[in-house]
Specification:
single chain, three-stranded antiparallel β-sheet, 1 helix, 6 strands, mainly beta
């Protein structure tokens, strides 16, 4: 069976924790989680999750990703 590798995509991301302002995350009072609004509903953002900003053309998407999945899929990019 043929094998495929995911194309490399550079994204901006910021790790969220309660009390920290990250674009798009609304923190819930008395809790350790927040949420993000999306066209298909709300996405829960847990403490330690990463909020990924992906830009394609003029469109921008923001979505949460668990720390475990983020570290498995992404590695730091050294900027010049």
């Amino acid at each position: 069976m043929p094998k495929f590798r995911k194309k490399p995509v550079v994204v901006e991301a910021e790790q969220w924790f309660p009390g920290k302002e990250v674009g798009g995350v609304v923190e819930r009072a008395r809790g350790t989680y927040g949420y993000m609004k999306a066209s298909e509903g709300k996405h829960i953002v847990n403490a330690g999750d990463w909020v990924i900003t992906r830009i394609e053309g003029e469109e921008e998407w923001r979505y949460p990703c668990s720390d475990v999945m983020f570290r498995a899929k992404y590695e730091p990019v050294e900027e010049d």
